[in-house]
Amino acid sequence: MRRCRWAALALGLLRLCLAQANFAPHFFDNGVGSTNGNMALFSLPEDTPVGSHVYTLNGTDPEGDSISYHISFDPSARSVFSVDPTFGNITLVEELDREMEDEIEAIISISDGLNLVAEKVVILVTDANDEAPRFIQEPYVALVPEDIPAGSIIFKVHAVDRDTGSGGSVTYFLQNLHSPFAVDRHSGVLRLQAGATLDYERSRTHYITVVAKDGGGRLHGADVVFSATTTVTVNVEDVQDMAPVFVGTPYYGYVYEDTLPGSEVLKVVAMDGDRGKPNRILYSLVNGSDGAFEINETSGAISITQSPAQLQREVYELHVQVTEMSPAGSPAAQATVPVTIRIVDLNNHPPTFYGESGPQNRFELSMNEHPPQGEILRGLKITVNDSDQGANAKFNLQLVGPRGIFRVVPQTVLNEAQVTVIVENSAAIDFEKSKVLTFKLLAVEVNTPEKFSSTADVVIQLLDTNDNVPKFDSLYYVARIPENAPGGSSVVAVTAVDPDTGPWGEVKYSIYGTGADLFLIHPSTGLIYTQPWASLDAEATARYNFYVKAEDMEGKYSIAEVFITLLDVNDHPPQFGKSVQKKTMVLGTPVKIEAIDEDAEEPNNLVDYSITHAEPANVFDINSHTGEIWLKNSIRSLDALHNITPGRDCLWSLEVQAKDRGSPSFSTTALLKIDITDAEVRRLRYMKNSNFPGTTKSVRKPKFKPKKPHSSQGLFLHPHCEIALFNLSNVNLYSRVFQGAAQAS
């Protein structure tokens, strides 16, 4: 029984302990690629931005208690992440750099308040293309001999990129595509290109820009490629491949009369063509000295060994040889150069001009004007000489006088030369401008202190040629002549001048053209005059126009134009159309007479009018310019007219004169018969002549006194004038017709 009680007690205690136990929480393990759980095998790109939510811790508590999350790092390491204790969200708080730290150790923990479970995790930092290639072991300097064969390796560059994958692979290329060098794109080995050479004398240093470029990759979501550049300095090393070179060529030396034996004449200078490592050089004379000269083998100074009086030649052509000596002391490359040495006496002779018979200082020549340009004046036989030697015999030749007409050759002379004068400007050699051309030949020494000189006069007599055209003193001539000028009258004299002399200067005149038929010209004097039979008439042709030609004996000519105007003469009287004229005058309206004067110009053709005879004289007035005739203002009706002249009928006769304004003046008279009526009579006459119905024939009723119209009668006219009687029934019918007819008349 006791044993059973203890067993029951133990079982009860066991049940109590189990009831009071609390199990620890734990993380979920969701495997690779999961973004929540216990960060097992979790990796993160190094270009993840700070502040990004990168992971979520996730776990559970068996009892379902609330849990919290924590993350911690080694005290010596950076705290790269932070965690939200409630939700487990992990945030990046420090920048990642795979090249500095490719994995991060952290301790993550989960707690239910009583139990804490901690795990150590390793977060892998994956690569992003955030590094550029970097050349190592700079600067790059290479020393290369100039005779290195094409294709040889010159140098090797090396660049590293700490990125992985394609972002860490590096390729190489040259920035200058036209360089004599090439680079292997994978190894960075620099070579001299096939067919290329180096030359120390042309370029001692080459600068090669090499570019290193990675293979590209992703950075912050974009594809990027990084590159770097470096400069390789290639110094070309000189080798012995160039012959020695003389400096200051050509070489000339002079020996004078007072030069002493042993004196230095000149020095030649040479240097090794290989400037980087020059060899020692030695000088020697090869030939041409005849023992008269020697050279210092180290300095290159050439000296005379004899007295100038003992020398057999005026000019010595020496050949100097220079030889390079190798470091071992053996002869190497060689070069030669000519050296000219002249034996010069003292300057004691000036230049002198010579003719065919000896020294001469005046030369004469005759030649035609305007010779061809470039022609040589062969009539001048001139020689110039300086008896000195060498530089003392060198002088310049020039012309002094009219500039630009001639030139002299040669312009520089050594010792002696034939002088040639050449035409430079043919137009300036003109007989009409200057019959004689004079200039001087001047010879002046060039390189002497004394500058000795001499001159010679050159006189050229020019001969005339027919090189000019006759020229009129005017392009046109204007003349005026009266139309009544008799045949053979002088009109105008033209003048043309030919500046040539002799027969070439004689001018012959002629005229031609449509207006020249009535005129002649004297062939020598140029006087233009009318034909003997010519009859000029300004009224028929007032102006003549033709051409005058001036010609020399060889047919060279020029032309001028002649304009001749006929001056009108008052040779026509005014003419009336008829000697007896009849006019009908309506009271209040003038009549007009007209006479024509056929003269060509005013005032000869202007006509003035006047009344020469009328009885009585106080009835009519006339406008002297227009020929209009009207009754005086005091006469306003037929009754008033007949009160002045009773017993006369209506037909008046006047003698009218037309007189021109010429000098002397001409006049003509005409008899003018004027039938005077008024508007009413005019209408009646119109109806009578038109045979209107109701009219009767005109009758004459002598000595009938005028009466006023009666109501039972028609219209009555003044006695002795034509009368038209009307039936009373027709008066009103035709009244408007009469008015229209009167207005029309």
UniProtKB/TrEMBL annotation:
One of its GO terms (biological process) is homophilic cell adhesion via plasma membrane adhesion molecules. GO terms for molecular function: calcium ion binding. Residues 42-135, 136-246, 247-353, 359-472, 473-576, 588-704 form the Cadherin domain. InterPro entries: Cadherin, Cadherin-like_dom, Cadherin-like_sf, Cadherin_CS. It is a single-pass membrane protein. The keyword Glycoprotein applies. Its main location: membrane. It comes from the Eukaryota. It is found in: Membrane. GO terms for cellular component: plasma membrane. Residues 1-19 form the signal peptide. Keywords: Calcium, Cell adhesion, Glycoprotein, Membrane, Receptor, Repeat, Signal, Transmembrane, Transmembrane helix. Pfam families: Cadherin (PF00028). Interacts with PROM1. Potential calcium-dependent cell-adhesion protein. May be required for the structural integrity of the outer segment (OS) of photoreceptor cells. This is Cadherin-related family member 1. The gene is CDHR1.
